[in-house]
Amino acid sequence: MLTLETPVQFVKGIGPAIAKMLAEKGVATVEDLLLHLPFRYEDRLNPRALNELQPGEMASVIGEVRGATLLRTRRMPIFEMTVGQGLSSMKCLWFHGTYLEGKFKPGQMVALFGKVEASKSGRGFKMIQPQFEILPDGSDDALDRILEVGRITPVYESLSGSRLASRWIRRTVWNILEELRGIPETLPREMPESILARLDLPSREQALREVHFPAAGTAMAQLQAAATPAHRRLIFEELFYLELGLEVKRKKFQEKTGIAFETSEKVRAALREILPFHPTAAQKRALGEIAADMRRGVPMRRLLQGDVGSGKTIVALEAMLIAIENGHQAALMAPTEILATQHYLSAKRVLEKAQRKYRITLLTGSLDDERKRAARRRIYQGEADLVIGTHALIEEKVEFANLGLVVVDEQHRFGVLQRFRLMKKDGAEPDVLVMTATPIPRTLALSLYGDLDLSVLDEMPPGRTPIVTRLVADERSDEVWEFVRKQVKKGHQAYVVYPVIEGPKDDQPELDFALPEEDEPQGLKPTSFRAGYGTAEAVPFQSRKSTTKKTTKKASSAELFPKLPLKSATDMYEQLRTQELAGLRVGLLHGRLDADEKEVTMRRFQRGEIDVLIATTVIEVGVDVANATVMVIEHAERFGLAQLHQLRGRVGRGGAKSYCILMTGGKISPNAEERLAAMVRTQDGFELAELDLELRGPGEFFGTRQAGLPDFRVANLVRDRKLLELAKIESARFVQRASEEATPEERARVAARLKDAWQRKYGLAEAG
Ligand code: ADP
Ligand code: MG
Predict the structure, then answer these.
(1) Is residue 461 lining ligand 1, measured as CB closer than 6 Å?
(2) How far is Cα 585 from Cα 573, in angstroms, rounded to an integer?
(3) pLDDT tens track for 140-173
(4) What is the residue with the minimal CA distance to atom 21 of ligand 1?
(5) Of the four, 177, 274, 297, 654, which is 20 to 30 A from 258 by CA?
C-alpha cells in the first residue's frame, strides 16, 4: 500500500534507475514527489484562438504544426516553426534553436505558451521562445487525453532532462493520487484541525489534488501566483513548522540560565569614558534594549540591524564593555580577516582612552600556529578580556575562561549560535548579539529571525552627505582616473574595486561573491513572487528556478552578452600604479594576502599613507575609513545590489562630499541595468533590498546555504510573506494554548513532525 513515506522506487512506473535520477533531485519519497509543485499552469481548457490574440499578452495556444525550419542567420541560428488553426497561423521563433531540428512534424498538435507579439509584416502574430509541448496524437492512451488537453494543465520543472519532464510528472503524480484515493490516513493530517478551521484551509489531500490538477474554473491568476487555497494550505504548513520551531527554540532559551550583568554607575562610567561621539537616538535605544537583555538572567539572543554606516560597531563595543566590566570575557566574530583586523585596530584605538587597560586578543585563521596557540592560552586562562576573530574562533576549538557575550558581525547565523555553546567551559549561557547590515524588510526579519529579538538602527549619525552615484562607461575611464587624482590632491582617499583577484582565470575566491554570467536575455525576470502580490501583471512565465532549457540559455546569453575578459585587482594594481595613477600611493588588498600583509595595508590606508586602495570585495563589509571619498567599482554589472550598496557604504562616512562611480563595459543584461539604475536612484538600503529580493529571489538574497536558512519546498519567503506572518502568529498561539486547541494525538503528531522537519529538512538541530 502506498503512503507518503513510500520510497518512489516502489511507485508503479518507477524502477531503481528512475529512482536514482529522482534522488539526485532530492526526491526520495512519494511525498517529495507530490510536493514538487507545478511552477505554472496552462489553460488548455480554453486555449486561445489565433485570430483573437492581442500583442503583448501572455497566451496559451494549441495548434497544428504546419512547418518548421532552421534559419542560419549571420548572427545566430534561429529555429522557426509555423503553427496553424484553420485559416490562421502564427510563427514561433527560437534563437540558437539548433537543438530543435527534427523535433516537430507537420500535423502534430502542439501547446504553446508565450508572449504574443505583432509580426513584422503587421499581419498576424509571433511568439519568441515560447514554452511548448508536443501533444499526444489521438492514438495515444486515454490518460494522455485526460491530462494533456481540455483542462488546466500543470507544467513542472523537469526532474531529469526530457526524460522526466512535465508529461512524465503529470502522469506519475496523477497515478499516485489515484492510488491514494480512498485509502484513509495515507495523507495524514499534520496540522491541528483547529488551525485549519480557523484559517479556512482545505485538507492536505484535497490541497495536493487541486494544486496538481486544478478544477476547471479555478482562477488562472491565482494559480500562477500560487495563491489558491490549495497552495496556501501547503505553503502555510511548511511555514508553520518553521515558525513553530523558532518559537520553541525561543521558549527554550527563556528557560535557560543566562548571566545577569549589572549596569552599575561604575559600569556606566566605563561606557561613557570610551564613547568617541554623541550616540544617535537610535544607538541609545538599541544599547538600552541590549543592556536590558543583559541584565536579565535569561540569555540574550538579539539581532542588531542597521544599514551600512549606521554605527553598529560602537553599540556592540559598549555591550562588550558591559560584559567585561562584569568580569566576563566578550568575543566579536567577523566574517573576514580584514574586518576582524579592522575591528581589532579600532577597538584598540577606542579603548586606549580608558583608564583601565583592556586586554584585547586577535585570533584569525592565518596567524601562524605559535601565535594562535598563545592567543588560545590567553583566552583559556582569562587573560584576554576582548577577543576579536573570524570563524577561527570556532574552528580552532577555542575555549573561554568566562565567556559572557558573543557578538557576531554580519552574515552567519544559526549554525554559529549553536556552536558557540560548545566552547564555553561550563556555567551560564553567554549572551549573543548578531549584527547585520542586510536590510531585511522588517516584517520578514521578524518572522524569519523569530527566535531573536530585534533592535534597529534606523538613523544615520549626523553630518553625512549624500553620496553622488554615477554610471560611467569603460571608454571614459580616463576621466574617472583624472577625478580620482583630483580627490587625492584635495587630501582624500579612494577605493577601486574589482570582481576578481587575478586574471584571467576567474576561479579566484572573491569571484564567489561576484555574479556569474546570468540573466535571460529575452527580458525574462524572476517575477514569480511579484505575481504573488498581484501588483504587477500576472506574469506566469517564470518559475523560481529557470524554466528555459539549460542549453538554450547558455548559448544565447553568451552570444548576446559576450563575456569580456575580467579586469582583476592584481593586474589593475600594476597598471594603475605605473600608468593612470602613477605618482600616487597605491595599495592592494584582497583575500589571498596573508594576515600580516592585510593588516599592514589596512593600517596604512587608515592612517592615510595609501591614497588609492585597489581591492576586491574583501572590503565590502565593515571597512571604515572616513577620509575615503571615492568608490570606483569596475565591472559593476557583475555585482549584486546588496554588494554594491555595501561597497558604496565604504564612502560618505566623513563630512566631505563622496562619490560612487560604477563602471561597466560592453553590453549588460536588463537585470544588471536595473540594479545599476537603482543604485543611481536611491541610497536607501531597505528600498534596494526589496528590489534585490525581487530581482534575485529569496534563496540567493539570503544566501540560503551560507546563512544556514532552510531551503523551502513549496514556500517562497518573499512571495509568501503574508503567510509567513500568519504562520508566526499561529505558531505562537499554538505554543501557548496547545492544550486547549489540539487533542493529545494531534499534539504528539505535531511534535514528531516538527522534530522531523527541523532535523531533516531544515538541517537545523535542536528544535522540538
Ligand atoms: P556600521 O553600522 O556600518 O558597522 P560603523 O559602526 O562602522 O557602521 O560606523 C560608521 C561610521 O560612523 C564610523 O566611522 C563611526 O565611527 C561613525 N559613527 C558611528 N556612530 C556615530 C555617531 N553617533 N556620531 C558620529 N559618528 C558616528
Ligand atoms: Mg560594521
Answers:
(1) yes
(2) 11
(3) 567 777 787 788 999 998 888 778 888 899 999 9
(4) 461
(5) 274
